[in-house]
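ok posting inputs for the iron/sulfur cluster job
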Amino acid sequence: MRDLRPAPPAAPFETNARLELAERARALAAHHAGQGAEEVLRTAMTEDFPGRIGLVSSFGTEAAVLLHMVSRIDPYTPVIFLDTWKHFPETLAYRDTLVEAFGLCNIQTVTPRPASVKADDPAGDLHARNPDLCCHVRKTLPMLASLRALDAWITGRKRHQASTRQGLSLFEAQDRWIKLNPLADWTPDDVAAYFETHDLPRHPLEAQGYPSVGCAPCTRAVAPGEDARAGRWAESDKTECGIHFVDGKMVRGPLPKG
Ligand code: SF4
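and the output
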Protein backbone atom coordinates (compact mmCIF):
# COMPACT_ATOMS: atom_id res chain seq x y z
CA MET A 1 0.00 0.00 0.00
CA ARG A 2 1.21 3.47 -0.81
CA ASP A 3 2.49 5.43 2.20
CA LEU A 4 0.57 8.73 2.24
CA ARG A 5 2.24 10.12 5.33
CA PRO A 6 4.09 13.41 4.71
CA ALA A 7 7.77 12.98 4.03
CA PRO A 8 10.07 13.95 6.92
CA PRO A 9 11.80 17.29 6.48
CA ALA A 10 14.99 17.10 4.46
CA ALA A 11 18.18 17.16 6.50
CA PRO A 12 19.74 20.64 6.45
CA PHE A 13 22.53 20.88 3.89
CA GLU A 14 25.64 22.77 4.79
CA THR A 15 28.79 23.20 2.75
CA ASN A 16 32.17 22.73 4.37
CA ALA A 17 32.80 26.46 4.00
CA ARG A 18 29.67 27.25 5.97
CA LEU A 19 30.45 24.73 8.66
CA GLU A 20 33.94 26.17 8.99
CA LEU A 21 32.56 29.70 9.21
CA ALA A 22 30.08 28.66 11.90
CA GLU A 23 32.92 26.99 13.78
CA ARG A 24 35.01 30.14 13.47
CA ALA A 25 32.14 32.24 14.87
CA ARG A 26 31.84 29.89 17.84
CA ALA A 27 35.61 29.99 18.41
CA LEU A 28 35.68 33.80 18.24
CA ALA A 29 32.76 34.03 20.67
CA ALA A 30 34.52 31.71 23.10
CA HIS A 31 37.84 33.55 22.73
CA HIS A 32 36.31 36.99 23.34
CA ALA A 33 33.82 35.93 26.04
CA GLY A 34 33.93 38.26 29.01
CA GLN A 35 35.76 41.07 27.18
CA GLY A 36 34.33 44.57 26.97
CA ALA A 37 32.82 45.87 23.74
CA GLU A 38 35.71 48.17 22.92
CA GLU A 39 38.29 45.43 23.44
CA VAL A 40 36.37 42.99 21.25
CA LEU A 41 35.95 45.65 18.60
CA ARG A 42 39.60 46.67 18.61
CA THR A 43 40.82 43.09 18.35
CA ALA A 44 38.35 42.28 15.58
CA MET A 45 39.38 45.36 13.60
CA THR A 46 43.13 45.09 14.09
CA GLU A 47 43.83 41.37 14.49
CA ASP A 48 40.91 39.12 13.53
CA PHE A 49 39.83 40.90 10.32
CA PRO A 50 42.33 43.72 9.59
CA GLY A 51 41.18 45.70 6.56
CA ARG A 52 38.31 43.27 5.96
CA ILE A 53 35.67 44.47 8.42
CA GLY A 54 33.11 47.27 8.25
CA LEU A 55 30.38 48.77 10.38
CA VAL A 56 26.83 48.79 9.04
CA SER A 57 25.01 51.69 10.63
CA SER A 58 21.47 52.98 10.34
CA PHE A 59 22.43 56.18 12.16
CA GLY A 60 19.56 55.40 14.49
CA THR A 61 19.13 56.37 18.12
CA GLU A 62 21.92 54.20 19.55
CA ALA A 63 24.24 54.19 16.53
CA ALA A 64 26.54 56.86 17.94
CA VAL A 65 28.04 54.39 20.42
CA LEU A 66 29.62 52.09 17.83
CA LEU A 67 30.39 54.92 15.43
CA HIS A 68 32.30 56.67 18.21
CA MET A 69 34.18 53.49 19.21
CA VAL A 70 35.09 52.69 15.60
CA SER A 71 36.24 56.25 14.93
CA ARG A 72 38.65 56.04 17.85
CA ILE A 73 40.16 52.75 16.67
CA ASP A 74 40.39 53.55 12.94
CA PRO A 75 38.39 56.38 11.34
CA TYR A 76 39.05 54.89 7.89
CA THR A 77 37.02 51.77 8.69
CA PRO A 78 34.23 51.43 6.12
CA VAL A 79 30.92 52.61 7.56
CA ILE A 80 28.08 51.41 5.37
CA PHE A 81 24.86 53.43 5.40
CA LEU A 82 21.95 52.07 3.40
CA ASP A 83 20.10 55.06 2.06
CA THR A 84 16.75 53.52 1.18
CA TRP A 85 15.45 56.91 0.01
CA LYS A 86 12.80 56.47 2.71
CA HIS A 87 14.67 57.82 5.74
CA PHE A 88 13.47 60.65 7.93
CA PRO A 89 15.27 63.89 7.07
CA GLU A 90 16.29 63.97 10.74
CA THR A 91 18.24 60.72 10.25
CA LEU A 92 20.15 62.12 7.29
CA ALA A 93 20.97 65.26 9.26
CA TYR A 94 22.06 63.15 12.25
CA ARG A 95 24.33 61.10 9.97
CA ASP A 96 26.06 64.28 8.82
CA THR A 97 26.39 65.52 12.40
CA LEU A 98 28.02 62.30 13.63
CA VAL A 99 30.33 61.96 10.63
CA GLU A 100 31.69 65.41 11.26
CA ALA A 101 31.81 65.13 15.06
CA PHE A 102 33.69 61.80 15.00
CA GLY A 103 35.90 62.51 11.98
CA LEU A 104 34.75 59.40 10.13
CA CYS A 105 36.58 59.22 6.80
CA ASN A 106 35.11 56.26 4.97
CA ILE A 107 31.32 56.58 4.86
CA GLN A 108 29.86 54.43 2.12
CA THR A 109 26.32 55.52 1.32
CA VAL A 110 24.71 52.71 -0.63
CA THR A 111 21.42 53.15 -2.45
CA PRO A 112 18.98 50.85 -4.24
CA ARG A 113 19.39 50.44 -8.00
CA PRO A 114 17.17 53.06 -9.62
CA ALA A 115 16.06 50.50 -12.22
CA SER A 116 14.91 48.10 -9.48
CA VAL A 117 12.95 50.80 -7.69
CA LYS A 118 11.39 51.89 -10.96
CA ALA A 119 10.37 48.31 -11.74
CA ASP A 120 9.15 47.19 -8.31
CA ASP A 121 8.10 50.40 -6.60
CA PRO A 122 7.19 52.94 -9.26
CA ALA A 123 4.70 54.74 -6.99
CA GLY A 124 6.91 54.58 -3.90
CA ASP A 125 4.24 52.74 -1.88
CA LEU A 126 5.63 49.21 -1.93
CA HIS A 127 6.30 49.42 1.81
CA ALA A 128 2.53 49.43 2.39
CA ARG A 129 1.74 46.63 -0.06
CA ASN A 130 4.73 44.30 0.28
CA PRO A 131 7.28 45.43 2.89
CA ASP A 132 9.40 42.32 2.41
CA LEU A 133 9.92 43.08 -1.27
CA CYS A 134 10.49 46.74 -0.44
CA CYS A 135 13.23 45.80 2.06
CA HIS A 136 14.66 43.33 -0.44
CA VAL A 137 15.00 46.00 -3.14
CA ARG A 138 16.02 48.90 -0.91
CA LYS A 139 18.15 47.10 1.68
CA THR A 140 19.08 43.48 1.10
CA LEU A 141 20.38 43.75 -2.46
CA PRO A 142 22.38 46.95 -1.84
CA MET A 143 23.68 45.47 1.40
CA LEU A 144 24.94 42.30 -0.30
CA ALA A 145 26.74 44.42 -2.90
CA SER A 146 28.30 46.64 -0.26
CA LEU A 147 29.75 43.68 1.65
CA ARG A 148 31.60 42.18 -1.34
CA ALA A 149 35.02 43.36 -0.22
CA LEU A 150 34.59 42.37 3.42
CA ASP A 151 34.87 39.21 5.49
CA ALA A 152 33.07 40.53 8.55
CA TRP A 153 30.69 43.28 9.54
CA ILE A 154 29.72 44.93 12.78
CA THR A 155 26.13 45.45 13.88
CA GLY A 156 24.66 47.40 16.79
CA ARG A 157 22.06 44.81 17.72
CA LYS A 158 21.47 44.16 21.41
CA ARG A 159 19.56 41.48 23.29
CA HIS A 160 17.50 44.01 25.22
CA GLN A 161 16.02 45.57 22.09
CA ALA A 162 13.39 42.93 21.41
CA SER A 163 12.20 39.56 22.59
CA THR A 164 13.28 38.22 19.19
CA ARG A 165 16.91 39.11 19.94
CA GLN A 166 17.24 37.28 23.26
CA GLY A 167 19.58 34.62 21.85
CA LEU A 168 21.93 37.04 20.11
CA SER A 169 25.59 35.87 20.13
CA LEU A 170 28.71 38.02 20.16
CA PHE A 171 29.79 36.49 16.84
CA GLU A 172 27.55 34.85 14.23
CA ALA A 173 28.13 33.26 10.84
CA GLN A 174 25.83 34.45 8.07
CA ASP A 175 26.21 33.42 4.46
CA ARG A 176 29.93 33.99 3.83
CA TRP A 177 30.38 36.66 6.51
CA ILE A 178 31.07 36.78 10.22
CA LYS A 179 28.83 39.23 12.04
CA LEU A 180 30.08 40.86 15.20
CA ASN A 181 27.59 42.21 17.74
CA PRO A 182 29.91 43.94 20.24
CA LEU A 183 27.00 45.46 22.19
CA ALA A 184 24.96 42.25 22.39
CA ASP A 185 24.82 42.29 26.19
CA TRP A 186 24.51 46.05 26.61
CA THR A 187 21.50 47.39 28.49
CA PRO A 188 19.77 50.75 27.98
CA ASP A 189 21.68 51.99 31.04
CA ASP A 190 25.00 51.03 29.44
CA VAL A 191 24.06 52.93 26.29
CA ALA A 192 22.91 55.98 28.27
CA ALA A 193 26.11 55.95 30.33
CA TYR A 194 28.28 55.83 27.18
CA PHE A 195 26.35 58.75 25.64
CA GLU A 196 26.81 60.74 28.83
CA THR A 197 30.48 59.89 29.38
CA HIS A 198 31.41 60.92 25.83
CA ASP A 199 28.82 63.68 25.48
CA LEU A 200 27.47 62.18 22.25
CA PRO A 201 24.76 63.95 20.21
CA ARG A 202 21.30 62.38 20.34
CA HIS A 203 19.09 61.50 17.34
CA PRO A 204 16.62 64.39 16.99
CA LEU A 205 13.60 62.04 16.95
CA GLU A 206 14.45 60.26 20.18
CA ALA A 207 12.95 63.01 22.33
CA GLN A 208 9.75 62.74 20.27
CA GLY A 209 9.06 59.13 21.33
CA TYR A 210 11.15 57.19 18.84
CA PRO A 211 13.53 54.88 20.76
CA SER A 212 14.19 53.02 17.48
CA VAL A 213 14.25 54.72 14.09
CA GLY A 214 14.13 53.10 10.66
CA CYS A 215 12.52 54.19 7.41
CA ALA A 216 9.89 56.88 7.88
CA PRO A 217 6.88 54.94 6.49
CA CYS A 218 7.63 51.93 8.73
CA THR A 219 8.40 53.67 12.03
CA ARG A 220 6.04 55.22 14.55
CA ALA A 221 6.55 56.67 18.01
CA VAL A 222 5.99 54.22 20.89
CA ALA A 223 3.92 54.62 24.02
CA PRO A 224 5.54 54.51 27.48
CA GLY A 225 6.18 50.88 28.48
CA GLU A 226 6.12 49.52 24.94
CA ASP A 227 8.98 47.41 23.56
CA ALA A 228 11.60 49.79 22.15
CA ARG A 229 11.13 48.30 18.68
CA ALA A 230 7.32 48.19 18.86
CA GLY A 231 7.22 51.19 16.58
CA ARG A 232 8.98 49.35 13.75
CA TRP A 233 6.58 47.69 11.25
CA ALA A 234 3.93 48.14 13.94
CA GLU A 235 1.13 46.79 11.75
CA SER A 236 3.10 43.71 10.66
CA ASP A 237 4.77 40.60 12.12
CA LYS A 238 8.02 41.70 10.49
CA THR A 239 10.76 42.32 13.07
CA GLU A 240 14.06 42.43 11.18
CA CYS A 241 14.96 45.07 8.72
CA GLY A 242 16.38 43.59 5.55
CA ILE A 243 20.07 43.85 6.37
CA HIS A 244 19.99 40.43 8.02
CA PHE A 245 19.80 37.66 5.47
CA VAL A 246 20.39 33.98 4.87
CA ASP A 247 21.29 32.60 1.45
CA GLY A 248 21.07 36.13 0.10
CA LYS A 249 17.43 36.36 1.17
CA MET A 250 16.15 38.75 3.78
CA VAL A 251 15.20 37.42 7.22
CA ARG A 252 12.00 39.02 8.51
CA GLY A 253 11.88 37.53 12.01
CA PRO A 254 14.26 36.02 14.58
CA LEU A 255 17.52 34.96 12.94
CA PRO A 256 18.56 31.31 12.88
CA LYS A 257 21.59 30.58 15.03
CA GLY A 258 24.83 30.88 13.06
S1 SF4 B 1 11.78 49.60 6.25
FE1 SF4 B 1 9.87 50.05 5.12
S2 SF4 B 1 10.34 51.69 3.63
FE2 SF4 B 1 12.30 50.86 4.43
S3 SF4 B 1 12.91 49.37 2.91
FE3 SF4 B 1 11.78 48.23 4.49
S4 SF4 B 1 9.60 48.23 3.88
FE4 SF4 B 1 10.71 49.74 2.60
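notes: The chain has eight helices and eight strands. The first strand starts at residue 53 and ends at 56.
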